[in-house]
Amino acid sequence: MSATSADSVFVARSEGISAEGVRDQYADGKAAKVWEIFIGDKNSRTENYKNFLINLLKSKNCKRILDVACGTGVDSIMLLEEGFEVVSVDASDKMLKYALKERWNRRKEAAFDNWIIEEANWLSLYDDIKDIVKDGFDAVLCLGNSFAHLMDSSPEQLEHKKAIKNFEKCLKPGGVLIIDHRNYDNILETGATPAKSLYYNSSHTADIKTSVLFYCGKPAMVAMDYLIEANNLTSEFRLSYYPHTLSQFTKILREIFGAGAEHQIYGDFKDLNEIQNPAFYIHLMEKGLN
Ligand SMILES: C[S@@+](CC[C@H](N)C(=O)[O-])C[C@H]1O[C@@H](n2cnc3c(N)ncnc32)[C@H](O)[C@@H]1O
Q1: Which of 19, 217, 261, 277 has its CA 20 to 30 A from that of 113?
Q2: Which residues pair with 65 in a beta bridge?
Q3: Which among 98, 100, 122 is positioned nearest to 38, based on CA atoms?
């Protein structure tokens, strides 16, 4: 039994239009419309991890960055402002619309004028943007619990592996993948999702109701029903996720990058020994030199 079967039993509110077989959960525009209300003030959001991320990127000598789940562009914009060269992609045109608008509004700034934004999905990413990849990026970022949007129909998680392989192919030798997921181990254990976290600190998030769908005795999908209340506007949307456990996700990363690849795991952008039970795990994987 597979997670995709589960997804078809427990239907997300936005069924979306598939692009290359990928369901765009943002296609009805509901989540996209309130996304920036949900994440709170952009600067205060990125303030939570900006120094950590930038120091990490600089310590690895990264200059050219590919943001593979840019959404409305929050992290990409922060990196452009910090002097990185950024290429941003996302599968959802409803989310990209906001990034494109920001690029247009700030087109007089050279960094924004040169900002490349493309629609692409992870399952065909390398082929979609081969001409832009050239010799490879110094870093690929997949942040904000984005990767868990990708369901997988196979018990071997073949689609997850395909997507991660595409990320790896977009890196130059020695480049780094920085990718996160919520702490699903804890969500599965408690049945609850923290409404506030380093990414989502908006005072407007009233509630996140969490449902865990078990399929043949195994957790197959986590659905989160968000309730956003702001300025007389109440918005509800549902997003569903694949519940990556830390050990299984680690195993897949190591399989794709090779057992000898450098792998660091952080909790909420801190060393793991500094934090108990983080809301997010962030992995750094380094591609070998040959
Ligand atoms: C939770 S949003 C996060 C956006 C942004 N990183 C942030 O933190 O605000 C997840 C994003 O991943 C994108 N996404 C989901 N599946 C994708 C896929 N298969 N290929 C490309 N983008 C995808 C969605 O369209 C959405 O914009």
Answers
A1: 19
A2: 86, 139
A3: 98
Residues 174-198: tens digit of each pLDDT: 999 999 999 999 999 999 887 667 7
209 within a domain of the structure (yes/no): no
Q: Which domain holds residue 116?
A: 30-184+244-287
pTM of the entire structure?
0.89
Distance (angstroms) between ligand 1 centre and the Cα of 70 equals 6
Contact by Cβ (8 Å): 208, 193? yes
Residue nearest to atom 15 of ligand 1 (CA): 149
Q: Is residue 203 part of a domain?
A: no
Probe residue for ligand 1, chosen from 36, 93, 98, 149 as the CB with the greatest number of ligand atoms within 8 Å: 149
Q: pLDDT tens across 63-85, in order?
A: 999 999 999 999 999 999 999 99
Beta-sheet strand order (sheet of 218-230) = 205-215, 218-230, 233-241
Nearest atom within ligand 1 for CA of residue 145? 1
